[in-house]
Amino acid sequence: MFFTIVGFLPGFYDLAADKIQCVMDKLLQFFLLFLAVTACQDPLFEQTPRSDPQGGGAPRDTLPPPAEQEPPVPDIYATAFVFPEGADWKEPEQADVVLFKNGEELLRVPVEGRPEPDRHRISEGRLWTDSCDGREVVVSCNGEERFRYEGDELLRGFFTVNGIVYTLGQRQGRGGFSYRINGKERFSSPAGTVLGGPEDSEWEGGAFSRDSSGVYYTYGLPIWKGEQLQWEYHVMREEELLMMIPSGRIVGALYDIRVHDGTVYRTELRSSYSSSYCLVRGENSYQDLKVVSPETPHYLKLVPGDGKLLVKGYSTGISGGKTYCYWLRDISSVERMVTDNQPILDLLTHGPHTAYLVEGPGHTVRTLYLDKENIPFTSDRYQLLSGRCAQYKKGVLGIALSDPARGEHLLVRDREVTSLAFNGYFTSLQIH
Prior knowledge:
By secondary structure, the chain is mainly beta. It has one helix at 2-38, and strands at 76-82, 96-101, 104-110, 120-123, 126-132, 136-141, 144-150, 153-161, 164-171, 177-181, 184-189, 193-194, 209-211, 214-225, 228-237, 240-245, 253-260, 263-269, 277-281, 285-288, 296-305, 308-316, 324-329, 334-340, 344-350, 353-359, 365-370, 373-374, 390-393, 396-403, 408-413, 416-421, 424-431.
């Protein structure tokens, strides 16, 4: 057996050698062909990067840095009541709420019942409406019902975040309110009165204050001491009591209560002396607003501005020859101030920019100033029917002016004025 295998081996080696030589020849041909093809192509990887043929010097296989994207241009949304042609806008039988985007009609929703400006608002570029038949409140978004609940309420606070709807509903004709999320009651008071409302246009949620520390609101409770009516104030973080200000604590007049960065602030007059106008931080930290006679402040609302809380108001009786003075101030200084011989309808600020409207006859707008420049339009004709119709946000000034008698209206974007014609009037505006 051994000899048989040994005798076989020489023949085996000859055959194997032939096959190996054949394989080697084919590999050599394939290698030469590969070199010929790859010589005409760019290499996948290079030890030394080649420069751009235009002389830029950047490696050819290095991606350029991503271009910085400019922030999107903000849009101006506005709402208006629009009535049928020829209908009396003072006593309309029917009406639509129309949502405009940059002056173009975007959506139209019929009004159920009597048109009330506080029963619709813009949130995140959407039209939110509510209606009430005395027994049930229905809340809709862009004309589609979102939820309903039993009650007879007018919404004093409203905002949305990622589809979640927060509301503060004041009962009509009597005390009591409800705080709700998506229509589900989270807290209620049978006698409380909500402080603030949709007219507080500097606050996105009307009567709500909100920041990274929570969602806040304030309500007052009437307390009778003999024949004297006093108020007890409850500052709430959602359904939890954050601070209670007892009745009798505020001796003079209370103007506003708001929460900023988790701290409660209020503006009040402690006595009849002008020097007692103050900003109160927390429970008992009284800070003088440095008002001196003969100046008499009015309004004294708390508004957010440049990352802090400011006091907004106007004064009469100031020196310098001007009758009216509108201002934003904190405890150390007057941040912004404008004066005129005529009443000032509103003061709007954003960063270093200042805009304000001067009142004309019949509550019309006589002059609109932006950074001391007069924005031209036909004066003494158009009206700013609500503080909700003006906003300075995201670097854009937006104002909606109405002339309901003629059915001609103006939409202002910075220094650009656009005319719109419809039988009705503007009711609110939002920059988004």
